Structure formats: structure tokens, C-alpha cells
UniProtKB/TrEMBL annotation:
GO terms for molecular function: ditrans,polycis-undecaprenyl-diphosphate synthase [(2E,6E)-farnesyl-diphosphate specific] activity; magnesium ion binding. Its EC number is 2.5.1.31. The gene is uppS. This is Ditrans,polycis-undecaprenyl-diphosphate synthase ((2E,6E)-farnesyl-diphosphate specific). InterPro entries: UPP_synth-like, UPP_synth-like_CS, UPP_synth-like_sf. PROSITE patterns: UPP_SYNTHASE (PS01066). Binds 2 magnesium ions per subunit. One of its GO terms (biological process) is polyprenol biosynthetic process. Catalyzes the sequential condensation of isopentenyl diphosphate (IPP) with (2E,6E)-farnesyl diphosphate (E,E-FPP) to yield (2Z,6Z,10Z,14Z,18Z,22Z,26Z,30Z,34E,38E)-undecaprenyl diphosphate (di-trans,octa-cis-UPP). UPP is the precursor of glycosyl carrier lipid in the biosynthesis of bacterial cell wall polysaccharide components such as peptidoglycan and lipopolysaccharide. The keyword DNA-binding does not apply. It comes from Pseudomonas meliae. Mg(2+) binds at residues 21, 208. The active site is at residues 21, 69.
Length: 251
């Protein structure tokens, strides 16, 4: 990842979420093993981070490994864990150089203790950075996230600290893994598929969806800028009419 240069502020989403799809198909097309696609995808991660930081995006969430990905062949899962571990060690310095903080969300209990320790170390080492937040969703699923939030609230009710009728959508949202961050404004999926695959199910309720036919390793600077430009051209209504939105903008 190159040293990031400041950019002129523009109309951009506060929070971008990306489903990084197509690594295996990228590799297969080139007659390479699947892990080669995942390794090539690291360059795309660096490119997208650079564009988001330049554009002054506040939060970038990358769907790196889903709850369901544990069902993949053991050899592939092992290679992904090794790549994740290596990236945590090698990229932390670059994140610090660019004032980017790292957060990791998901069920960490399934990861090897050494990898869990590397996650905590990377988060601590970048915790003082404030330019923007890079959030990695690993062993993450939207259903898991909602369930763990419900469990937290259930424990509060059980302890007598909360009444069932006190539970509101706003309160539940604060208990999600992303509860202290703005909701995603834009969700991008690469690889040509048109689904969200159990990613941030609650949080994406009003996000703009953008689908790219590019496989993730090919989704670089220009592709990310095109996605941001598309977002800037949209009118977000949140249940209102266009006339109401336009009137509010004029007020």
C-alpha cells in the first residue's frame, strides 16, 4: 500500500461495506490454485483502502471470511488463516503510517489462539489512529450478529436491568458488532453475484447496493472510484418521496 495522499473532499459515503467475491474464480481462470486468488486480492484491499482514505470515507468494512466459509475445504481454510495472520503482521505498520485504525468483528472463538492474539495486537497497535476505521469481518455472519445482540439484551432482562418493552430497534442496534459506528451507506459486491450473503443484515437496511462484475483481485483504484461516483449520483430517500427529499435539501 502506497503512502496515502490527502484529497479534496467530495460527496462520499461515511461507511462503505464490501463483499470481496471472486478470488477463487479469478485464480481458476488463470489455472492457478485458489489461494493465489486470495493472495492477489490483498493488492485490491490496499487499492480500495487508498481510495477510501483519499475520499475521506470514515469507515471501510471488508467481508473477509464468513461464518459459512468454515465449511470450505480444510486446505483452503488453512491457507486463508495463514494469509490472514501474515497480513495482520505485515500491514499494521502501513496502517499506522496512514493513521488508520483496525477493528475486527465476528466470532473469534473459532480462530486459533495465536491468530486471536495477533488480532488483538493489531487492534491495540492501531487504536490511536483517527483518519478512518478499517473494519474486517472475519468468522462473521449477519444472523450471528443479530443473535449475539439479542443474547446481550436477554441477559440484561434476566439480570433485572432492563424490561422487555425497553428493547427498541435503536437499542438493539447499539448491541451489534458495529454498534458504535455509522451504518453503511454503500455496500459493494464484486464477482458478478447479486446477493448479500448474510453480511451486515441489520445494518444494510437502507444502504445503497452496488454490484460489479469484476473479480475482487481486479477491483482496484478506478473501480472503487467508479463505485463512489455512482453512489454520489443517487438520491437516498429513506422511505420519503423525491419531493420531500428535495424540499429538505433546500430548507
Amino acid at each position: 500500500m502506497e503512502k496515502i495522499k490527502p484529497a479534496v473532499p467530495s460527496s462520499v459515503p461515511r461507511h462503505v461495506a464490501i463483499i470481496m467475491d471472486g478470488n477463487n474464480r479469478w485464480a481458476k481462470k488463470r489455472l492457478l490454485p485458489g489461494v493465489a486468488g486470495h493472495k492477489a486480492g490483498v493488492d485490491a484491499v490496499r487499492a480500495v483502502i487508498e481510495v477510501c482514505a483519499e475520499a475521506k470515507v470514515e469507515v471501510l468494512t471488508l467481508f473477509a471470511f464468513s461464518s459459512e466459509n468454515w465449511q470450505r475445504p480444510a486446505e483452503e481454510v488453512g491457507a486463508l488463516m495463514e494469509l490472514f495472520f501474515t497480513a495482520l503482521r505485515s500491514e499494521t505498520k502501513r496502517l499506522n503510517e496512514n493513521d488508520i485504525s483496525l477493528r475486527i468483528i465476528g466470532d473469534r472463538s473459532r480462530f486459533h489462539p495465536e491468530l486471536q492474539a495477533a488480532m488483538r495486537e493489531a487492534e491495540v497497535r492501531t487504536s490511536g489512529n483517527s483518519r478512518f476505521v478499517l473494519q474486517i469481518a472475519a468468522s462473521y455472519g449477519g444472523q450471528w450478529d443479530i443473535a449475539q445482540a439479542a443474547q446481550r439484551l436477554a441477559r440484561e432482562v434476566q439480570a433485572g436491568h432492563l424490561q422487555p418493552e425497553d428493547i427498541t430497534p435503536e437499542l438493539l442496534q447499539t448491541c451489534l458488532a458495529t454498534g458504535d459506528l455509522p451504518l453503511p451507506d454503500l455496500c459493494i459486491r464484486t464477482g458478478g453475484e447479486h446477493r448479500i450473503s448474510n453480511f451486515l443484515l441489520w445494518q444494510l437496511a437502507y444502504a445503497e447496493l452496488y454490484f460489479s462484475d469484476l473479480f475482487w483481485p481486479d477491483f482496484k483504484h478506478d473501480a472503487m472510484r467508479a463505485a463512489l461516483a455512482d453512489f454520489a449520483s443517487r438520491q437516498r430517500r429513506f422511505g420519503k418521496t423525491s419531493e420531500q427529499v428535495e424540499a429538505g435539501a433546500r430548507a
